[in-house]
Design a protein that fits this description.
Elements lengths: L7 H4 L10 H8 L4 H11 L1 H10 L1 H4 L5 E3 L19 H4 L2 E2 L4 E2 L3 E3 L6 E3 L4 E3 L8 H4 L4 H33 L1 H21 L3 H28 L6 H25 L3 H9 L1 H5 L10 H6 L3 H14 L6 H6 L19 H47 L9 H10 L1 H15 L1 H11 L2
Antiparallel strand pairs: 1-6, 2-3, 4-5
């Protein structure tokens, strides 16, 4: 009898198999079936929101030219104009290093001595009408470092979020941590836009930075856990295109929303859409199996099989297991409860100890190289992305072009990773990039 649905035996997996890991089930239900595609796309979309926050500092903290506000000037003074009877060479000392009138000093009207601006400035708003640089006076010696510190703390939040949310997702599940991160991003993103002063803004942005890690990394893990081994490379690379889409959307938002507070709030609101996932998005099957919650995992797996139009025999559900799932308190010392097994374990340990030390050293070396390459690549990537306004010309166009170069880069990865290998591509790209 023929059937429109895929049968387990046709796939080559006998029902008599007693134990089966989740990876062995994926070829049966489909390595990238309808269910996986739906979940994958839905989880890649929040990467756009993460890109908005990670790259928005180019416009949120945009630097502009400035000068001291003269005592006679009003709050609506214009940067390149002085009150009648005042001249630039009589009001400001010359900055020979920058070859322009000083931005942080002026002449005292009474004594003629050079004095500081006293915290009052006039900004050139022809290019940017508003930014944190302007509103919080992040200029001159006493406050200019606060400008760079704001973004540094945002990146520190990303680091802490990567560590913290990754651990929390292993402890309490992917789903609750993903939605917790979404809530934090929306709430603190809006708070950053409403912040009345610098420190509230920086703290709120730091939390937003941490939340981007929870959303992007945890979402990426959930999406990739359901993808079969032969499809993971393509799925992993294509996901990055969504981040690139966020690049372009950031430029569009910033072009039409010139007030930094409204821009920050606008970048945070899309997270509300993703909160709707809560009502139909399931927990990770792998995590449930690892925690011994097999009944819940099987229930979700049945829904996956139904959506993918695949028939899975009951024997496979019953034999489903995970090598990570174990009872609490299990450890290697329990081997010595059985004398013969314990002696064999000691013999194996001493026989392989030397080789283990060599392998461990090689493993540590590879891990260190991976960390260093990640550090270098991230530093260069964000260093270039966040400094497009220093290239001259149109800031919005420069920013969009900087994102556009990622499109052929990811296409190259799709073509080369399986053909040339990971090591050759990584080393070759780093050498080509200087």
């Amino acid at each position: 009898m023929t059937s429109s649905k895929t049968d387990l035996n046709v796939a080559g997996f006998p029902p008599s198999e007693k134990k089966m890991k989740f990876d062995s089930v994926l070829p049966v239900i489909g390595e990238f079936g309808r269910y996986q595609k739906r979940v994958y796309i839905l989880l890649c979309l929040p990467a756009i929101s993460c890109a908005l926050h990670k790259l928005a500092w180019v416009f949120l903290g945009a630097k502009v030219d400035h000068r001291c506000k003269l005592p006679i000037e009003s709050v609506d003074a214009v940067f390149n104009e002085l009150p009648s009877g005042y001249l630039f060479n009589e009001s400001f000392p010359w900055d020979g290093q920058r070859e322009m009138w000083s931005q942080c000093l002026r002449f005292d009207n009474t004594t003629g001595a050079t004095i500081s601006c006293g915290g009052e400035y006039v900004y050139d708003k022809r290019k940017y009408e508003s930014s944190t640089f302007i509103d919080f006076n992040l200029v001159c010696e006493e406050r200019k470092m606060m400008h760079s510190h704001a973004q540094a703390l945002f990146m520190a939040g990303i680091l802490l979020g990567s560590i913290g949310f990754g651990d929390l997702s292993d402890r309490f599940g992917r789903r609750p941590v993903f939605f917790l991160s979404l809530v934090l991003q929306v709430v603190f993103g809006i708070l950053a836009g409403l912040a009345p002063e610098y420190f509230t803004f920086v703290i709120a942005r730091m939390v937003v930075g941490a939340s981007t890690s929870g959303i992007f990394l945890v979402g990426f893990v959930i999406a990739m856990e359901m993808v079969g081994p032969t499809k993971r490379m393509v799925a992993g690379v294509v996901c990055q295109y969504f981040f690139t889409a966020g690049y372009f959307i950031t430029a569009i938002f910033a072009y039409f929303i010139r007030d930094w507070r409204m821009l920050q709030i606008a970048l945070s609101l899309p997270g509300l859409v993703f909160l709707s996932y809560y009502w139909f998005f399931p927990e990770s099957i792998r995590w449930l199996l690892a925690r011994g919650r097999k009944e819940e995992a099987v229930e979700i797996l049945r829904k996956v099989a139904k959506e993918n139009k695949v028939t899975i025999p009951e024997e496979m559900y019953e034999g489903l297991c995970s090598e990570e799932s174990s009872k609490a308190g299990t450890n290697i010392l329990q081997v010595f409860r059985y004398p013969r097994l314990g002696l064999r374990a000691v013999n194996i340990f001493f026989s392989w100890y030397h080789q283990l030390v060599i392998y461990r050293n090689r493993l540590y070396f590879k891990i260190h190289l991976n960390v260093i390459s990640r550090f270098v690549n991230s530093g260069v990537y964000y260093g270039l992305s966040l400094n497009t306004s220093n290239l001259g010309g149109n800031d919005y166009l420069n920013f969009a072009i900087s994102g556009a170069v990622e499109i052929p880069a990811y296409a190259f990865l799709l073509f080369s990773l399986n053909r040339l290998g990971r090591k050759a591509v990584l080393c070759g790209c780093m050498l080509a990039g200087g």
